Amino acid sequence: MKKLIQIFVISFLSNFFISTICQAQWQPDVRLTYNGSSNLSFNNAWNVASSGNTVHVIWFDSRDGNREIYYKRSSDGGISWGQDTRLTNNSADSYESSICVSGLLVHVVWEDNRDGNYEIYYKRSTDGGINWGLDTRLTNNSSVSENPSVAASGLNVHVVWEDARDNFNNMEIYYKNSTDGGVSWNPDTRLTIHAPSIPGAYFPSVAVSGSVVHTAWTDGRDGGYRGDIYYKSTTNGGVNWGSDSRLTFDGVSDRPSIAVSGSLVHIAYQYSTNGNYEIYYKRSTNGGTNWDANTRLTYDSAISENPSIAVSGSLVHVIWDDHRDGNPEIYYKLSINGGISWGQDTRLTFNSANSYFPSVAVGGPNVHAVWKDYRNGNPEVYYKLNSTGNSIGIKKISTETPDRYDLSQNYPNPFNPATTIQYSIPKSGFVKLVIYDILGKEVETLVNEKLTPGEYSVTFDGSKLASGIYFYQLTVDNQMVETKKMVLTK
After folding, report:
1. Which CATH number fits domain 395-488: 2.40.37.10, 2.40.110.10, 2.60.40.1930, 3.40.50.620?
2. pLDDT, tens digit (0-9, with 9 covering 90-100), for 354-413
3. Is this model's pTM higher than 0.85 or not?
4. Residue 215 CA: distances (Å) to CA of 24, 31, 71, 210, 304
5. 155 has pLDDT over 70
6. Architecture of domain 2-386 in CATH?
7. Are strands 454-461 and 395-398 parallel, antiparallel or unpaired?
């Protein structure tokens, strides 16, 4: 009985802690666009990406008479934002964009009908979004190619999309990759095969950890109103792919969003129950070989849909739009133990207009959310920051006051993909722990907050980085304490 009470108290305090942190640290909404026609992708690809203190947002709008791709960046963790950058310039429609980042390489994909039918196009920046290269056409067929999703690890870039070239009335999932940072691209790979009379595959989402690439999509091969969630992976960077895995068995699951941290694979999706969609979650702890049971994340009588998921170590972030308040609002939920248990729902928007299609990304201690919002009478892109929502993973492992500042060697070292860093501070101060690459460029900020005296540990996940030498540096109150070297091997 005593153990049961202890378990209840621990669970209650954990949920209370998560809920309190989330609600207290989310900052006011920031309006990013002012043109009256901005839209975000609805295929659960990501519209926001982050690396260190640089945040990247992508969208499409029709301010120019037809839909074009636009981009905006913040170099201070979402505090202030630069001007809109127009990435496409043609007389046809460019839309349904997706963005990812690996260090200073920023990758954008979208669908474009400048060629008379919709094809997948790509564009990249090699300096963190300051300058952009030329458009690259990735597909070339007479049918429709649409709803792309992109992920990157080091110089390896992976794109999935839905394509009707083989199944005139239905879509199939296709894949393409680059091993040189987007300079050149390998041939298209067809990932799904359906008979012409069988409903096809839609809304793919892709994630990568080292050489392991994971994709999930909605599939209608088994019947049902929408379909089921299917999954597929490759362990050698896209050269060979395993068999399709069916993850749901109800015929009414849709729009998966996938994220990965090492061997932990996370999928959020919408599932229709009692006539309305709810948000569900599924995870694998062994790289997609086996999957846990479905976990229901929302419980209300209205529609909850369009989930987006991001992960950093044991912290899993899910965001979606929810109709429980009479109009669609943006909601958020957090797990601090890799998806085993979840905190309470956190409402992020409070207005009488509709808020749709959210995306979530993490970078250092920050959680970044973007969505489409009608509060101004027309669709605009809005942004919200939680400046400590991804730093709950910092663990205080000793409350005794150390006699000096100390930065320990990371362990394991070499590592793949995650490693632990311990440090000690003898007095209160504003602490920063930053990862740099061998050229001295900032890769990620792990700690960026005021801490009390003690010994701490934090986990660094290098799954999105290339193999090589990296440095981590501890500063307190803007005074450098120590720098150490670590090696990532993949």
Report:
1. 2.60.40.1930
2. 999 999 999 878 899 999 999 999 999 999 999 888 876 678 888 889 999 999 999 999
3. no
4. 34, 32, 25, 14, 23
5. yes
6. 6 Propeller (2.120)
7. antiparallel
